[in-house]
Design a protein that fits this description.
The complex is a heterodimer of chains A (308) and B (310). Chain A has 308 residues and is mainly alpha-helical. Chain A has a single domain, classed as ABC transporter involved in vitamin B12 uptake, BtuC, CATH 1.10.3470. Chain A is 73% helix and 5% strand. Chain A contains twelve helices and four strands. The longest helix of chain A has 33 residues. Chain B is mainly α. Chain B has one domain. Helices cover 75% and strands 3% of the residues of chain B. Chain B has 14 helices and four strands. In chain B, the strands form two sheets. In chain B, strands 1-4 form a two-stranded antiparallel ribbon. Chain B has a two-stranded antiparallel sheet with strand order 2-3. In chain B, α7 runs antiparallel to α10. The relative contact order of chain B is 0.19. The chains are: A mainly alpha (308), B mainly alpha (310). Chains A and B meet through α4, α9, α11 and α12 of A and α5, α11 and α13 of B.
């Protein structure tokens, strides 16, 4: 394949990554913004979404659309409920002390991951998408009669990938509407801005925290259900989304949804390009070093001071 | 005096166990002593200076690969390999101390985590040299020190005991030295320590380099004594484990790292007989410790029985 179509393919792959990443990272960003908790177990809620989706799809059977549709609703709810339970049982009792909650969420990471290994097993299993047809894409080629539209072999995408991009965009849009236009979103933003003042105004901060932690986990699980037809469900799949979400959230500015979105698109696309043209390992090395350096250069702006 | 007797007593008991233990536990204890040396290194930074690093696997792996690569590609013996590994860890920790200590608290944790992850990925990226995921087995020549074969159980146990003794006594000396006390002051209240005229940044840097170097020495010893170098030792899990050992044993105590490593090693060993998901124990322990016993075992001893326990 020539360079042009190759680059386009990398961009489409990157766009799928970016879409899923935007959803996952907005969950992480929300939890940090409102609760000031760095949730190391975020990637495991992502993994849980994919694994639950496989179980639900298996249990329902019939046409793939039924199983997948059920998974799309039930898996995020279950992951969210588990996160709420974790908040009530663990994080609240640590009074949300930043360093101790990180250690506790590392513990949660291992608990969720290893329990999945014990019950679901070490295999990687796919979930069948409700629909998935291949689309060949056109590309201008120079033929004997000058420029014309050609269909390079192997150059194309699938309807499911395009659906993932569209669905993720719609969901992030819905999240933005929820945060900016509803009363519940207002309560969340008020808690984010000033926890004590929110308490003084009668906002049930404890319940807001539990809800936020659940919502963050549900967003990660939702992203995983969307992507599981393309990338299989596996008990170790939570590592990469966690890493990339950190990159996105830290570069985009913590607690800021537009920044998170912009960074997700940027990181997703560049991850796609570097992975296709160089190596996926190199892409990850660059991403991790980027996070570290951003934090070192601007430690106060991101973690020290409260996000505006 | 009582403290010195306690720690010397532990070392004497470990020496006596060399003659008493059955082969399986003899081998395990040698491993635990090397891992406990790693935990002592971690404790210098976390327990005394109060800096929670999530990236010590980088230092452990620096020591391991510094030693292992010199043996594999340079044909060196155990002595030079040990020195090279320790020096490599000292260099890496010095570089990281310059960069990462610009941050504090949560940002420090994330920065160390990310640098360690970058280190792990770098090992994978240069797979032609490092053997990537699979790692490599150290050739026999690299496990000889002054004509002693360190791969035999006896020599291995005694070498591990020597390393552990040096780390334990060094840590005890540090806890009582002015330097160690300044670190504790920084942990308790950095502002106040600075007001008293201490250069807190320089102290934290020194603590981080010392901690990284000890961790690297443990990594180099692990490679030489157990004969295997692999990328799994650079993974996040090997940054979390020393944290877990120190939390369990008691952060800021001299004996804590050993107690924690010993308990955790046998817990995970027992669990892996039952299930492949043995890290579940580690997860449960982390959550339970943060919730119910943030001081750890020796911390509880210090609180209830012996206030002067170093």
């Amino acid at each position: 394949m020539e360079f042009g179509p190759h680059l386009m393919l990398a961009l489409i792959e990157g766009a799928v990554t970016a879409a899923v990443l935007a959803l996952t990272a907005s969950g992480l960003s929300l939890v940090f913004g409102v609760m000031r908790v760095v949730n190391i177990a975020h990637g495991e809620f992502f993994m849980l979404g994919a694994v639950l989706a496989w179980w639900i799809a298996q249990g329902i059977g019939g046409h793939p659309a039924w199983g997948f549709g059920a998974a799309l609703v039930v898996a995020p709810l279950m992951a969210g409920a588990l996160a709420v339970a974790a908040d009530l049982a663990v994080l609240r009792r640590l009074s949300y002390d930043p360093e101790r909650t990180i250690v506790a969420t590392i513990g949660l990471l291992y608990i969720i991951q290893q329990l999945t290994l014990m019950s679901y097993g070490p295999e990687a299993r796919p979930v069948v998408a409700p629909f998935d047809t291949r689309i060949a894409l056109p590309w201008p080629e120079r033929g004997p009669e000058g420029w014309q539209i050609g269909w390079p072999w192997g150059f194309g995408t699938t309807t499911w990938k395009l659906t993932v991009i569209g669905a993720a965009a719609a969901l992030v849009g819905a999240l933005w509407l929820f945060m900016s236009r509803t009363r519940a979103g207002l309560v969340l933003r008020a808690t984010q801005a000033d926890r004590e003042m929110a308490t003084a105004f009668g906002i049930p901060v404890a319940r807001v925290y539990a809800f936020t932690f659940g919502l963050g986990a549900a967003l990660a699980a939702l992203a995983a259900v969307l992507i599981v037809p393309i990338r299989q469900a596996h008990y170790l799949m939570g590592g990469d989304p966690l890493l990339l979400s950190f990159v996105v959230v830290i570069i985009g500015g913590l607690g800021s949804l537009p920044g998170t979105l912009l960074a997700a698109v940027l990181i997703g696309l560049s991850d796609g390009i570097v992975s296709v043209f160089f190596s996926p390992t190199l892409a990850k090395i660059i991403a991790t070093l980027m996070v570290a350096l951003v934090l070192v250069v601007r430690p106060q702006g991101l973690f020290g001071a409260r996000a505006p | 005096m009582r403290a010195l007797a306690l720690h010397a007593g532990l070392l004497a008991m470990l020496f006596a166990l060399h003659f008493a233990l059955p082969a399986y536990h003899h081998g395990n204890l040698a491993r635990v002593m090397v891992l406990a040396s790693y935990a002592i290194g971690y404790n210098l930074l976390f327990g005394y200076a109060g800096l929670l690093s999530l990236g010590h696997a980088l230092f452990f792996a620096s020591g391991m690969y510094g030693a292992g690569l010199l043996v594999e590609h340079g044909g060196a013996g155990a002595g030079p390999a040990m020195l090279a590994g320790t020096a490599a860890a000292a260099l890496v920790s010095a570089a990281l101390a310059l960069v990462a200590l610009r941050t504090r608290g949560v940002a420090f944790m994330i920065v160390t985590l990310m640098f360690a992850q970058a280190g792990f990925l770098t090992i994978l990226h240069f797979g032609d040299w490092t053997g990537g995921d699979e790692g490599f087995v150290l050739p026999q020549a690299g496990r000889m020190l002054w004509g002693i074969d360190l791969s035999t159980p006896d020599a291995r146990y005694l070498a591990a005991l020597a390393l552990f003794s040096a780390c334990l006594l060094g840590s005890l000396a540090l806890a009582r030295a002015p330097f160690g006390r300044v670190l504790v002051a920084i942990r308790e209240n950095e502002e106040r320590a600075r007001m008293l005229g201490y250069d807190t940044l320089a102290h934290k840097r020194a603590a981080m380099i010392l901690s990284g170097t000890v961790s690297g020495a443990a990594g180099a010893a692990y490679a030489i004594l157990f004969g295997y170098v692999g990328a799994s030792f650079a993974e996040v899990q090997y940054s979390i484990l020393p944290l877990l050992w120190v939390l369990l044993g008691g952060a800021g105590t001299v004996l804590g790292p050993f107690i924690g490593a010993l308990f955790m090693f046998y817990l995970i060993d027992l669990a892996s007989g039952v299930t492949t998901a043995h890290m579940l124990i580690a997860g449960v322990a982390l959550v339970a410790l943060t919730l119910y016993a943030p001081q750890g075992l020796m911390g509880e001893v210090r609180r209830r029985l012996w206030r002067g326990l170093p």
